[in-house]
Amino acid sequence: MSLENEIKEFARSQGADLVAVASIEIYGDYLAEVKDRLAETGADLSDYMIQPADVSFFERLADPRETLADAKAIIVLGVYAYDRTADYSKTQQGLRGKTARIYSYYPVVRKIAEKLAEFIEKCGYRAIQGQNIPLKYVADRTKLGTYGKNALLLTKQYGSYVALRNIITDLPLSPDRLERFVSPCEDCRVCLKACPTGALYAPYKVNASFCINPLTRRQDDIPPELRSKMQNWISGCDICQEVCPVNKELTVRRIDPRAGFDPRHHASHRYLDNVEKTPHLTDILGEAYPDVIRRNAAIALANVGKGKLEALAALKKHIATASGQLKEYYLWAIDVLEN
Ligand code: B12
Ligand code: SF4
Ligand code: SF4
Questions:
Q1: Ligand 2 pocket, mutate which of 158, 183, 190 (most atoms under 8 A from CB)
Q2: Is 151 touching ligand 1 by the criterion CB < 6 Å?
Q3: Which regions in the chain score pLDDT beneath 70?
């Protein structure tokens, strides 16, 4: 068996749904595009939720040798992340918060990448796993998928619900020559129209300062005009994926036992395989959730709780234990619900 096939077989045996080998290049056009995007939108690098919040982050992604000086190949891994049968349309009526589907699968794809890196290292080569390349760009180049106008990688088998990760290695592997999945976007603009904040300001382009995903993680203030557009998303946002006709064709996958949220970043429930398990917004206010999630729950209540006495009562009850910025959000939400 060829080295490439051995690697792929091992990755699949660990649960990878997609795996491809890409060449080591300096992705200069990607870096130019990042700079254009920043200039076009005026978004701050902190809006990208990256560390460190400066352009060196993207420079490192654009040149894989910054991660491994003697790099010879990149392995891109993908795990299908659509595992819930939840009818999300009912969450607003039930005062429940929504979290992005893909987050459950980041730990799964990371584990697979760690195992594969170990496997390569045991063969006597270096292998560094992480998110240290421009994942969509490289996956698009290998033809593992293609860019959708929602600025995400769309794949033939799994739509855009794929959690990606990569390995950079000095193991010499031949890059794949896959057949490109023909873009389904053509005249469609459904995702652009559906984005509630206008973050998808042009096909393939996101203004990170408007995207609900970073807004739900932001520690500093969220402008009121954006709060009212966040609906009941409390961690991430899937709208530009939920509306995509390609994703509507998908079948729900079996839940991987390794899937789960990282409570440091996300609402601390484990699986969201049905709507009853999505977090109740009024419960979040009173539990030991991080302040950021409680703030998001207050915003969500203001957005979907109008006319619901339960929402108002919960905010009024928990305001006594809230302080500082959080208290201001609770007061703001009460004001929205009362007026
Ligand atoms: C920074 C970042 C963000 C930022 C910026 C998003 C963005 N689109 O740039 C913020 C915080 C907003 C964000 C949000 C989300 N993210 Co994010 N993010 C990243 C990160 C770290 C880098 C992305 C990046 O390089 N952006 C810079 C821009 C310039 O790059 P780009 O989008 O690839 O831009 C290219 C296109 O515009 C293309 N292009 C330009 N014009 C044209 C024209 C045509 C015709 C074509 C075909 C292409 C094209 O050229 C550009 C580059 O060369 C990656 C992880 C990684 N290491 O890659 C995850 C990653 C992209 N995120 C991911 C996800 C899942 C999300 C969310 C869906 C999370 C959620 N559910 O809330 C949202 C989706 C928002 C959206 N619609 O894009 C996944 C995507 C998986 C997939 N199937 O594509 C990744 C790969 C993480 C992972 N490990 O899986 N993210
Ligand atoms: S909604 Fe339409 S335009 Fe947007 S990614 Fe899906 S197919 Fe492409
Ligand atoms: S994730 Fe939500 S806010 Fe961000 S671009 Fe997609 S629809 Fe817009």
A1: 190
A2: yes
A3: 84-87, 261-277, 287-288
| pLDDT at residue 276 in the model | 52
Q: Residue 237: CB within 6 Å of ligand 1?
A: yes
pLDDT tens, 9-59? 999 999 999 999 999 999 999 999 999 999 999 998 888 887 777 889 999
Gyration radius from the chain CA atoms: 21
Where do the domains of the chain lie? 1-261
Amino acid (1-letter code) at residue 135: L
Q: Is the pTM here over 0.85, yes or no?
A: yes
Token pair of 99, please? 């979290």
Does residue 260 have its Cβ closer than 6 Å to ligand 1?
no
Among all bound ligands, the one having the nearest atom to the CA of 164 is 1
Angstrom distance (rounded) from CA 329 to CA 230: 14
Ligand 3 proximity of 185 Cβ (cutoff 6 Å)? no
Q: H-type helices in the chain, by residue range?
A: 3-13, 28-41, 56-62, 106-122, 135-142, 190-194, 212-217, 224-227, 239-242, 245-248, 281-286, 291-304, 309-318, 324-338
Q: Which two tokens stand for residue 93?
A: 């009526």
What does the mean pLDDT of the chain come to?
91
Q: From CA 224, how far away is CA 135, in angstroms rounded?
A: 33
pLDDT for position 271? 42
Residue 93 CB: number of other CB atoms within 10 A? 9
**With the CA atoms of 286, 289, 278 and 210 taken in that order, what torsion angle do they form, in degrees rounded to the nearest 10?**
110
Q: Find out whether the beta carbon of 34 lies less than 6 Å from any atom of ligand 1.
A: yes
* Protein residue whose Cα sits closest to atom 87 of ligand 1: 164
Question: Residues 78, 11: contact at Cβ < 8 Å?
Answer: no
For ligand 2, atom 1, which residue shows the shortest CA distance? 244
